[in-house]
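Postdoc handover notes: sequence design on the structure in folder B. Input tokens:
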């Protein structure tokens, strides 16, 4: 089955992941995923509010020192409204390998885009994939 999974990953290492299956491993609406910036997860209501008042981050991919709740909601809101073309990055790790942690956050880049996909109810999201393909098969995240 691993050879079949390899066929699903393009030459740049990107594949299509199930948003709902990935949310079972890393849900930005249930857990804080932006370091120690926040004391609780961003809510869908905060994103809805940012959209309602057009508080959309002008450059959501730019690095910024503004790590407030409203800044995170504003970045997610921008992606909800405008979408994106670049894949997120996901690494499920390699169970049994030294240093593997089952509790590690698997979305290594693109948490705002992933939150936007969850918010919009997107069925899939493009991702650069890292880790064990056979483990990804067990997790049923690659579609």
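Designed sequence:
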């Amino acid at each position: 089955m691993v050879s079949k999974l390899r066929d699903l990953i393009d030459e740049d290492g990107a594949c299509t992941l199930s948003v709902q299956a990935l949310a079972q491993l890393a849900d930005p609406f249930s857990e804080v995923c932006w370091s120690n910036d926040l004391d609780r997860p961003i809510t869908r209501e905060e994103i809805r509010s940012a959209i309602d008042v057009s508080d959309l981050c002008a450059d959501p991919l730019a690095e910024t020192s503004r790590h407030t709740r409203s800044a995170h909601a504003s970045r997610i809101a921008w992606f909800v409204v405008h979408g994106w073309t670049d894949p997120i990055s996901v690494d499920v790790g390699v169970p049994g390998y030294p240093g593997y942690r089952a509790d590690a956050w698997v979305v290594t880049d693109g948490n705002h885009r992933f939150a936007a996909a969850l918010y919009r109810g997107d069925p899939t999201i493009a991702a650069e994939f890292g880790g064990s393909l056979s483990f990804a098969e067990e997790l049923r995240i690659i579609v």
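Context for whoever picks this up: The chain has one domain: 2-139. Don't rerun without checking with the PI first.
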